[in-house]
Amino acid sequence: MVCNLRIEQSTWFKWLCVASVIIGIVLLTGAYDPASVSTGIFGVAAGLAAGLSYALFIFGFKNASAIGSPQTVLTVAFFAFCLILVWITDLGEALSVLTSPDVWWFLLLGVVGAGVSFIIYVIGVRRTAPKTASMVAMVEPVTASLFGVMLLGDQLGIIQILGMAIILVTITVLSVKQAG
Q1: Which residues does UniProt assign to the signal peptide (predicted)?
Q2: 1 falls in which pLDDT band (50, 70, 90)?
Q3: Domain membership of residue 146 as a residue range
Q4: Residue 7 placed within a domain
């Protein structure tokens, strides 16, 4: 899709890197073992839609941030997101957050996790090529796994560590090749 839009040149090397990262993610998440995967076709479709949406998000924000301020871009994006979510949200459940004893945690996650991080993201995307931003995004499964290990006490097996190594080596090789 990105190649059809003539935003970036497709090469065999880039496709091999994408395949390598996918293999690393499969090993890291355990998706190679069908018995351990508890998602159906809807989960697979949602995952693929999330990946496509993220690609559109990166290129859309790159273009939008060149036109407006990060705060304006985020306001428009969050307003559009709210319009979409209002149709699929359980309003009773959403309103129960207001009376929850954990309301401050929800606010903290919303402000820091969505607000501040996206402002920093838009500022970074303004100064970064989309291919670099997508390359950095490939590290996300590794960081999520490491946070699980450090904060939640998760244990990683040899296959998961191998998956992390494949992802990190691929991103390193890709970034060195693009820098040189």
Answers
A1: none
A2: very low
A3: 16-179
A4: no
